[in-house]
Amino acid sequence: MNSAGPISVLGRERDVTIPGRGRFVVWDAPGPPGAPVLVLFHGVTLNATLNWSGVVPALSRHYRVLTLDLPGHGRGIRSGVPFRLEDCADDVAAVAAAFGIRQLVPVGFSMGGMVAQLMWRRHPDLTAGLVLCSTARNVSGSVWERSAAMMIPGLMATAAWIPAMYPLGADVLGTSLLDGVTEAAPRRWAMEQMRRTSLLNAMSAVQAACQFTSHRWIGSVDVPTAVVVTNRDRIVPIRRQWKLADAVPGSAVHEIDAGHGVFLDAPDTFAAALLDACASVTSGTGSGLAESAS
């Protein structure tokens, strides 16, 4: 069903084939025996390596940590259909079943936070808690944002007819997401990672994120939830992050002095906040979060 490959900073590489979807590359950092399981969802134009390599070593001292590239991003599957956040949640549920995991805690950054919310919505028995980072209930609330969201399908249709667009990478869009990252070397490395995702795939994901809203149901979340707020974020405004936190009953807020590029600009700060957030969600959970098989 799955095979183990080389070890990276994200953990051992494992291949999993999901019928009807394809072959997934999943990085598995085992953590201590019987540890709670985290699954990490990256943001749009990013990949697992870029978003999470700075924090997995710290997290894996306490948790089993699974990461993967979302469809169309990095080494994620090429599904041949428009990007859907719901598919991302369902794919991880299928991977968890293949690994024999009964429960896990989705940890999502930005667009990945939307996928994490959908994990609870679509797979409540699997979802034991939520950690939502630099994300929101929606990103299309204002008139300007709604107008921009309406323009994306037309832009994608136009781009699909222009051959010169095909080789372009997600770095064309992703540069603006590196909010607060000023050092040249990390930015160059980030751009290299973003080029592993095509611009057209990234635009499809942006469209899906713009169409997402959880404001009608997020208040029904009934699992422990932590929200990591980046208070200098110019991509996901802080007011949206706090609206999400306020909407989830009993959520624990972990505010950090950082921008949207915290995963690259200040990975130690990000890791410390994630450790606190995950601890607030998993404390007292017992063995229910641990994998039943590997």
Question: Would you give an account of this structure?
Answer:
- This protein is of the alpha/beta class and 294 residues long.
- 38% of the residues lie in helices and 18% in strands.
- The protein has 11 helices and 9 strands.
- A 9-stranded mixed beta sheet has the order 1-2-3-5-4-6-7-8-9, sandwiched between helices.
- Strand 2 and strand 3 (22-29) form a beta hairpin.
Helix and strand arrangement:
Elements: E1 2-8, E2 11-18, E3 22-29, E4 37-41, H1 48-52, H2 56-59, E5 64-68, H3 85-99, E6 105-109, H4 111-122, E7 130-133, H5 143-160, H6 171-174, H7 184-194, H8 199-211, E8 225-230, H9 238-247, E9 252-256, H10 262-265, H11 267-282
What is this entry, summarized?
This protein is α/β, with parallel strands linked by helices and 294 residues long. It has helices at 48-52, 56-59, 85-99, 111-122, 143-160, 171-174, 184-194, 199-211, 238-247, 262-265, 267-282; strands spanning 2-8, 11-18, 22-29, 37-41, 64-68, 105-109, 130-133, 225-230, 252-256.
